[in-house]
Amino acid sequence: MRNRFDLQFAFALVVIAIFVMAGVFGGWIAPYDPAHQDLTQTLKPPVWHPDGGWAHPLGTSSLGQDVLSGLLAGARVSLLVALCAVGLSGIFGVIVGLAAGYVGGWLDALLMRLADIQISIPFILLAIALIGALGPSLTNVILVIAITNWVAYAKLVRTETARLRQRDFVRFARVCGTPWPVIFVRHLLPNVLNSVVVLVTLDIGKVIIFESGLSFLGLGVQPPIPSWGGMLADGRKYINIAYWTSLFPGIAIFLVVLCVNFAGNWLRVRTDPKAAP
Amino acid sequence: MKSFLQRSALVLALSVAVAAPLSLNAQPRGTLTVALPAEPATLDPHKGNTRYNYLFNSNMFEGLLVRNDKADLVPGIAESYTISPDGLTYVFTLRKGVRFHDGSALTAEDVKFSLERAINPATKNPLLSFIRTIDKVDILDANRVALTLKEKDAIFLKKLTFAGWIVPRAYLQQVGEDGFARRPIGTGPFRFVSRSINERIEMQANEQHWGWVPKVRTLVLRTVPEDAVRLGMLQTGEADIVAEMPPPLIDRIGAIRGVKTLSHPSGEIYWLVLNIKDGAKDSPLLKREVRIALNHAIDRQAIIKNVLRNQAEQIPGALAPSISVVDPNFKPYAYDPARARKMLAEAGYPNGFKVDMYGSVGRYTLDRDINLALANQLKAVGVEVNLNLWDSAKWVGDLSKKYYPMSYQAFGNTIFDPEGLMIFGVHSKAFWSFYRNADVDRLIDESLSITDQKARDAHFQKIDRAMHDDASHVFLWENKILFGIRDRVTWQPRPGDNIYKFWTASVGK
Amino acid sequence: MPGTGYLVERILQAIVCILGISVIVFAITFLIGDPVHLLLPPEASASDREVFRAAMGLERPALERYGLFLFNALQGDLGQSYRFHMPVIEVVLERFPATLELAVAAIVFAIVLGIGSGMLSAVRPGSAWDRLVEFVALSGMAAPTFWVGIMLIWLFAVEWQLFPTSGRSGALSLVLPAITLGLYSAAVISRMTRSTLLEALGEDFVRTAVLKGAPQRAILFVHCLKFVLPALVTIVSLQFVLLLAGAVITETVFSWPGVGRLLVQSASGGDYPVVQGITLLLSVAFVLIQLLADLLQFALDPRLRSAT
User: What pTM was estimated for this model as a whole?
Assistant: First the structure.
């Protein structure tokens, strides 16, 4: 059983490593400038089609832009959005959840109602409003996702914390007069982290897909900056006749998300002594 | 006394004699389902402002004059009219026997009520600008209505046909504004049956229509925003006509068995609009040579062929061949990037210049791709374009607040007269115009009083040439709307008319 | 049983929530911009636009407009739609059942598939079955909604003609959209069920029950599920609201005449009364769901009572 897991994990790690490297170096190793247009080469199919060629192994877009180059360069946006948006919303959400669950009472009520207000406002609407006002850019996309994403963390952590608070080891620590930061870090956080890690691994993929949803509405990262979400959204028009314009960015997103989840799973199993292998 | 047999034969013969002409005027048959990417939000003809509203209005309602399926201006509710010598008073003689869809007779009161409602600011009619020259409406007698204008207007009738829809006064007052928007009633070839918001509108042939009874019994307009799904509906037969398909799908549509494509000239003119009205005094766009250079920098044929799949036709100047008479000797600016660069250098920009460009996404066919392609071609001659692509709503909203030096825009055809384009999109006083040229303004003002059609044609050719010589914009093309139509449907819209009329459409077996 | 004090407190909080939401939504419509240019054709002149703006009451100060909005809303009048020219309530309520129907179908699909597969995984951790479910679940979360939707349409509706391609026309037309919408939630629920169930299975009280000789099924359903339910209720309630508000893409792909698509169209079309109306309705629905979820949790596990 160990061996099987290690193989899976190794594969996942390799993919993630490729993703990160593409995110950092992709712009430089791409064969073409992903924004370079060639109107004589529009919607050329990948190399395994009779019309395709090695000049553009994964085909071209509706403006003759190389799909492979777009994939390599677009990894950066997905990487940044994933790390920053999930990081920001996760940290904020966990803090709120800990506070609400531990202190309880009025603080809990206040924070949870704020969370309710936040989540009641449809993400789409908030995105249209914020990006409409601030303009579409990578920073604003991260901001919008972070602002709307923290609630899940807060609610989950709050439930777990409230439960843990009643446990003997916590009550014991409080009786001993342990200052609350120590309780948070030493006693609560480790136990809460499991669920949070699961949520984070689910979230990274969700956030990458959110970014493609924003591109869907024209609110995502703007050209000439390439993004997988942007490519996916553009390719939507041509799904019937040029599947490669959306299949490959879709596969890229899919693979990365899958592997992040595998890796997260493996981590969780390793760090939680009580979980079954 | 004739025998029973003889009497029966007589009755039979009479029935046949009576029935024959009726069957020659074939009964409306079948259901026509049309899939469109959007729908008219309101069904009230005095409150809508998108082309889907105009589509609905044209099939449901009528004005004093109407456009038939060939888009010719013909008598509608009025069978004739006279214009006073000073051009300010129009007297319409109403047709007898016109009935609303609920059976009530149309009267002069309905005409007066409708037109007054259309120009009343409280109605908030988006199309008020078209008929604001109406000063008052008077009833002369039971059959005649007089319209008095504030000023002479050579194409008043064309504008009136577009915005002056007639609605039933009694019914409207009875059900109220909301009720009317829910269940509208008009005098048109189709009557309203039902509607599910954002999904479908069902209409039925008005068999009492005075002029043309539709050939189909039921008309269903389905709202399907997703292109791929509309294509699917064509394939399964759920839709008979799918409209506004993206050009790259043309081969795919043609490949479906039992389906043909229709490339319909839309009458919409596309320009790269250069803002000469606002902005800095030292903007490069203020120089004529720069504007001509930009016209030379664009390879229109490459975009038309590769991006638009030939679903567009280059226009030599400002006007579209499907709705106005274009001078056949007119030569468009050729694609010549070397010349463009030379002209820019001579104008004082040997290294080009930087400029912001604002493009919409989702407003026009393939607008995102076209904006990117245009920006790219400009870059190739040294014009560093900073392209901002915005969602359609934001783009429209900021058009009036922000300075857009360059933007890709289209002007639609609503009144079948180039004056519409000129008044609303070129004259320096127009809200949506960013061009300023005193000579062109003067020419446009003059056109308001030319009534003879041939003289108008010549006059607009003059304006066209003036705009072309001044390179008022970067002239691009007239696009074609791509339809997928099932073979069993017979329907031919008139080129240049993108307000589809369905009463001549018929469905075979 | 929660005391009436708690109940009242929660309801008051819910009201405050809704008020807060109404303020924010109203403010948002300011951010989006001027609807006048979206409601008038390009041909309208500058002076006509000013007249139009004044006739719509957009000249009045923001606070006054908000006050008017709130006052009317409390009487059940959400104003008139700028585009439909019908009362907002009517427009929204006509579309709301469609979204509700879709969201309920999707969440039912997600719960059944999610909990079922999660339980199967938890009972046989590490097995081939577990790994298969894991893969499918992760795939479900990795696939973009519109991609799934369009693929389903092309396969099941166009090629095999088992379902209608689009539109809302009976039970069959609900299947593909519900699957498309619910797939992501099913995956999330499956993962969460598996992890919390595994955790529960390791707990002392379970071991005690095993030692006592209780049958496995009883352990699973009676003890574990009760342990697991609070977290599940949280997740399900969150997912449900995400479904309500996030059905935009699904509704667009399937031309489902629901509220999500209407919301985006109204925001793009400058129809702000409808935007406000939909958001208000969604938020009321959500706050109620949260209330129910909290009360349910409370009933399930008194230890969660956060009384000080």
Answer: 0.83
